[in-house]
Amino acid sequence: MNRLLRLPFLALLVFSVLFTACKKDHDMDDMKHESPYMTIMMDMMTQMDTQVKTQDPDHDYATQMVMHHEAAIKMAEEELRTGSNQEMKTTAQEIITKQRAEIGQFNAFTAGHQPMQPLVPQFNTVQKSNMDKMMKASDARTITMRADYDFAQLMVDHHQAAIDNSEALLQYGRNTTTKTLAQNIITDQRQEIAALQNWLTRNR
Question: Where is the DUF305 domain (predicted)?
Answer without folding.
Answer: 26-108, 122-200
